[in-house]
Design brief:
The complex is a heterodimer of chains A (170) and B (625).
Chain A: H1 2-21, E1 34-40, E2 51-54, H2 55-60, E3 63-68, E4 77-82, H3 84-90, E5 97-102, E6 107-111, H4 113-117, E7 121-123, E8 125-126, E9 129-130, E10 140-142, H5 154-159, E11 164-169
Parallel strand pairs in A: 1-11
Antiparallel strand pairs in A: 1-2, 3-4, 4-8, 5-6, 5-11, 7-10, 8-9
Chain B: H1 2-47, H2 50-73, H3 80-99, H4 110-131, H5 137-262, H6 268-298, E1 307-309, H7 311-328, E2 332-336, E3 345-347, H8 349-365, E4 371-380, E5 385-394, H9 401-406, H10 416-422, H11 428-438, E6 442-447, E7 453-462, H12 481-485, E8 501-506, H13 510-522, E9 525-530, H14 533-542, E10 547-551, H15 559-567, E11 578-582, H16 587-596, E12 600-603, H17 608-617
Parallel strand pairs in B: 2-4, 8-9, 8-10, 10-11, 11-12
Antiparallel strand pairs in B: 1-3, 4-5, 5-7, 6-7
The chains are: A alpha+beta (170), B alpha/beta (625).
């Protein structure tokens, strides 16, 4: 009984802390077209089952920009988007694995700790242009490949899902 | 010469072998690097496989075709969003097929070249149809027809991609195989080279070993040759010793006869001739003695017989003998002694005198005017060894450095012209130096032409008590070579009145028989003669004798055997005094005589004084001194 009260209090504290660090405390419902759905172990939901994001919500998060070579192109490309860990924090996602799915039904597993270890972003801009579905849009999981040799391997290339549409947290 | 060429050839082969080995290893390295690069390349291709790209494209192509087909089959309104999404995804796949680096493998294939323009045309057509909603069914029908028409070609492209990748892998595997083969061959070559190199090393090692053995054999042969040479040299020395010995016997007669001749009435002129003959004979004897000494030194038979010696007395004797020689040539002779008495030493007096006589004789010989000085000093009088320094200084002709270098060498003589003038065997200095070295010392010289010479004799002799004044050694040996050479000593007046003492003279040489007989007659003895040991053994049993003078080397039976036989007889005969008489002055001659049972020993040439002392010793009172 007492421990339950304590847990509630701690949770409230955490929420209070998050609330102070992020002005847009509670996740508002998406106003535009939903491009990313985070389901599973998420504490912050704006639909009955998941945290749904439109492009504007993602653009409100702190943005990260870097340029890197990829195996899919002959030229280096400039990517822009929120850090994966900030997106997960917005949905208060907890767990070990992200099951990412793409529009073309591509599926891949990303360990949750990748979001902490590397500056992985959900890119919505390539070379300062919105990414259309007919290339690799609207969202592209991009690792900063040029910063670490270990990132230039099949393991991380497979985790780099493009045309990302949803993430299930387990 | 050939050894050096061999070595150079070996070094050349070594260098070539090393170079070949290095080359093979470098090639191996290059191949390994090439393989690694090939692996990296295939890695990058695997990372985004062309097959997967083509397959995914075909899949999206089929899905968009299906979506279009469904839209046409459905009588309701067309779901434009779903159609657009499928189309966009299809486009993204098409983009990848145009831009992805992996596609380079496929772009040359006919299947790709055939399908791509048609796909481009399809995209233009579909953009037009889907770009301006609402989508009209009529516009979708030709799209569907085109999509259906493309199906076979799209599949052909997928298969082409698959075949290209398979071929690439095949090519890589082939290259790898070839490189592997090369590596194997190179390794085999290296192995062969290594075996050849070890074989060459083995051969070389064997050759070196053979050379070493040959060298060893040569050394052995040389050693043997040296032994043979030394043996030959010893033989020569032995021959010299024998010859000198043989020479002494007739010489004995010559000296004795000359002595006797001088004691007969002769005219002054005849006396002068006899004197000259005696001097010549004396010289000859001294030469003979030198040869004997060298032979003895060489064969190691010369040993010193140390006895307590009073240096003061010895030097007095030396002075007494040398003074007259110097005076004869008009030279001063001076003996410088330390103020205190010289210590007594253990030394072979005869040999010590020999050294001093030799050096002083030389000094007198090579000095025309001025003086000859003998200076004696004691360096360490109290030690167990007394260090003595004898300095012999003259004002003679001296010599240059070259002459001094060869001075102590055998047969060295001052120079050709001087040889005629001064004579000598050229052995004296060698003998003296050898003797000095046997006495733990040496002889050195300093000199300059015209400035005289200084010979320094250093000796280290054991100190001892002052010897008893009485002369204990038998007088026979106690004579320096020069003294022996003085024939004058044999010509002293004969004592008379010796009662008839019967002496058996065993001597094969007629002249010696005659000389000894004459001397004995002069001493009043009765002499009987026989020529060998066997006759002597017979005679002593038939007649009665007071003494036997026994020569050693005789035909039929030698003197020593006869002596032993007589000693083995019974009664008084076994005690018959036997005096062995021999020209053999080697050290062991005396010992052998004594061992055979002789009572005494006399060396030839016979000295009157010695013979007299012997005769009187065994006369049993028949001789009065």
């Amino acid at each position: 009984m007492i421990s339950k009260i304590m847990r509630v209090m701690v949770t409230c504290g955490a929420v209070a802390f998050l609330a102070t660090s992020m002005p847009a405390a509670a996740l508002e419902p998406a106003k535009g077209k939903v491009i990313l759905t985070i389901s599973g172990n998420v504490a912050e939901k704006n639909t009955p089952t998941a945290a749904a994001f439109d492009l504007a919500m993602l653009e409100k998060l702190p943005q990260q920009t870097f340029t890197t070579m990829t195996p899919w192109d002959k030229q280096p490309i400039k990517f822009k988007g929120p850090l994966l860990r900030d997106v997960l924090a917005a949905a208060k996602a907890t767990g070990t694995t992200i099951k990412a799915a793409a529009l073309n039904d591509y599926q891949t597993s990303i360990p949750l700790e990748d979001a902490q270890k590397f500056d992985v972003i959900l890119a919505h801009k390539m070379n300062d242009q919105d990414i259309p579905v007919k290339t690799k849009g609207p969202l592209f999981v991009v690792y900063p490949y040029d910063t670490k040799a270990e990132l230039r391997s099949t393991t991380y290339y497979e985790r780099s899902a493009w045309q990302l549409k949803s993430m299930a947290i387990e | 010469m050939s050894g050096r060429t061999n070595n150079q050839r070996y070094l050349l082969w070594l260098a070539l072998g090393t170079a070949a080995m290095a080359l093979a290893m470098a090639s191996l390295l290059v191949f390994e690097l090439a393989q690694r690069r090939a692996l990296e390349q295939s890695d990058s291709i695997r990372s985004d496989s062309l097959t997967a790209l083509a397959f995914q494209f075909e899949r999206e192509f089929l899905r968009v075709r299906q979506t279009v087909g469904e839209a046409l089959a459905n009588k309701d309104a067309i779901d434009q969003d779903a159609l657009s999404l499928r189309y966009d995804i299809f486009l993204s796949r098409l983009g990848l097929l145009k831009d992805s680096p992996s596609v380079s493998l496929l772009t040359a294939r006919e299947e790709y070249r055939r399908v791509m323009p048609r796909l481009e045309a399809l995209v233009v057509q579909m953009d037009k149809t889907l770009g301006s909603p609402p989508i009209k069914r009529d516009a979708l029908i030709p799209v569907q027809e085109e999509l259906n028409g493309l199906g076979a070609d799209v599949q052909a492209m997928t298969l082409a991609a698959n075949s290209e990748v398979a071929r690439l892998l095949e090519r890589q595997s082939d290259t790898m195989q070839k490189q592997n083969n090369l590596i194997v061959w190179l390794t085999v070559a290296q192995l062969a080279l290594l075996i050849v190199a070890s074989g060459a090393l083995f051969v070389r090692q064997k050759r070196v070993e053979a050379e070493r053995l040959a060298l060893e054999q040569l050394t052995d042969e040389l050693r043997e040759a040296r032994f043979r040479a030394e043996a030959a040299n010893r033989g020569k020395s032995q021959f010299l010793a024998n010859m000198s010995h043989e020479l002494r016997t007739p010489f004995n007669g010559l000296m004795g006869m000359l002595g006797l001749l001088q004691s007969t009435p002769v005219t002054p002129q005849q006396a002068d001739y006899i004197g000259t003959a005696q001097a010549s004979a004396g010289h000859l004897l001294s030469l003979l003695n030198d040869v004997l000494d060298v032979s003895a030194l060489e064969t190691g038979k010369l040993t010193l017989k140390p006895a307590p010696v009073s240096l003061n007395r010895l030097l007095g004797n030396v002075q007494a003998l040398m003074q007259p020689l110097a005076r004869e040539k008009g030279l001063d002779f001076e003996l410088e002694l330390p103020p205190e008495r010289l210590p007594a030493v253990l030394a072979d007096e005869t040999r010590l005198k020999q050294i001093l006589f030799n050096l002083l004789n030389n000094a007198i010989k090579f000095t025309e005017k001025g003086q000859v000085l003998l200076h004696v000093a004691v360096l360490t009088p109290k030690e167990p060894l007394v260090a003595l320094v004898f300095t012999i200084q003259d004002t003679g002709i001296g010599m240059d450095a070259k002459a001094m270098e060869r001075l102590f060498q055998r047969f060295y003589q001052v120079d050709d012209s001087a040889t005629r003038k001064f004579g000598g065997t050229g052995l004296g200095l060698e003998i003296s130096q050898s003797l000095a070295r046997m006495m733990q010392g040496d002889i050195t010289v300093t000199s300059a032409p015209g400035a005289g010479s200084t010979f320094t004799v250093t000796l280290n002799l054991p100190a001892c008590e002052e010897p008893v004044a009485v002369q204990t050694t038998a007088p026979a040996v106690e004579v320096a070579p020069t003294e022996v050479a003085m024939p004058a000593s044999t010509v002293e007046s004969f004592a008379s009145g010796v009662p008839a003492m019967r002496v058996l003279v065993v001597e094969d040489h007629p002249i010696n028989q005659k000389l000894v007989g004459l001397l004995l007659t002069r001493m009043g003895c009765e002499s009987t003669f026989c020529e060998n040991g066997q006759l002597a053994v017979d005679l002593v049993q038939q007649e009665s004798f007071d003494m036997v003078l026994m020569d050693v080397n005789m035909p039929v039976m030698d003197g020593l055997t006869a002596t032993r036989l007589i000693r083995g007889m019974s009664g008084a005969l076994s005690r018959l005094p036997i005096v062995v008489l021999t020209a053999d002055v080697m050290n062991e001659a005396r010992d052998q005589a004594m061992a055979a049972g002789a009572d005494d020993f006399l060396s030839k040439p016979v000295n009157v004084a010695q013979l007299r002392s012997i005769v009187s010793r065994y006369s049993n009172g028949k001789v009065s001194d």
